[in-house]
Write a structure and sequence with these properties.
370 residues, Lyase, Ornithine Decarboxylase, Chain A, domain 1, alpha/beta, 11 helices, 25% strand, 11-stranded mixed beta sheet, TIM Barrel
Length: 370
Amino acid sequence: MNVRALARVNLAAVERNCARLTRASPRLCAVVKADGYGHGAVPCARAALASGASSLAVAAADEVAELRAAGIAAPIIMMGPVTPAELERVLAAEAEVVAWSEPFLDWVLACGGGRVHVKLDSGMGRLGTRDGALADRLVARVANSPELELAGAMTHFATADDPSDGFFDQQLERFSAWVTPLRERYPGLLVHAENSAALLGAQHARFDMARCGVALYGLDPFGQDAGERGLEPALELRSWVATLKPCAVGESAGYGRRFIATEPTELAVLPIGYGDGVRRALSGNADVLIDGARRPLVGTISMDSLTVDLGPDSGVRVGREAVLIGADGSERVSAEEIARRIDTINYEITCGLTRRVPREYHRDGLVLAT
């Protein structure tokens, strides 16, 4: 390796995942917020658009600006709240915005107008209005204003990733009851609600467009096995063995001496740590792949390094690659496995990779110019 740590992103996998999702939805909005869930917003946006996505979605004004600066002209939905100053930038970039209040529409009009999606909070409890009557008024105001264009009506599901939770059907029923009469009043209205989990797991919840993020990158929205959903993980995280250290009985490694050898062994030190996004909570609670074998991560993860127990006769040499996320031979460490070990979600694992880890883009092994 030429760097201390590297995230390799297979854009061909993103393209195949996108094609898989477009077979399930008549229209796909690729969610590339949070730097494409840690994979890189611009390359992944291009890959998705080339493979059937019709639009993109982000959550912050700077994310809109990044895509436009890269020359991406596709429709962009800015889903998050914005300040008046940010709104002016977003609308100037011809991005679509999401509304759930009258004052927000006043801001949009003050900026000269734009394309607006109205959001009903059907149970997520975050953005959107719970008041169906207010949502109706917002839709009517947008539809009847020359400066505004009604781009869509939307909601977001809270429990689509838990098939055993009946709340999903309650949300679906509430949203359907709201949009059904709207469709009659506004023919051609774009209705969208499904996230990755709803698209892949709820055949009875189909509207005009799905907004998919996590599945686009080959991460399982249910936190299990992405392959079972026909998805390919797009990201691998690699580092390398910087040094080898014999460790005698009673000797330790890392802050707090959380690892003390009970038998002679050898430790590999990798130049990657929580400053790169490897969660400190994985200390003593993860495996790293070296030479095709699982090796336990031991000791406390530091900001810039971590230690792996190789055993006494591993044959591992300095310079060997180490895989923290991805495959090596017949072994694989998935983002889902890492997430389960620390009781979180796969989204957080990839989103947590910091800017200190360069991204290398390839298409099934053919490295692309960055």
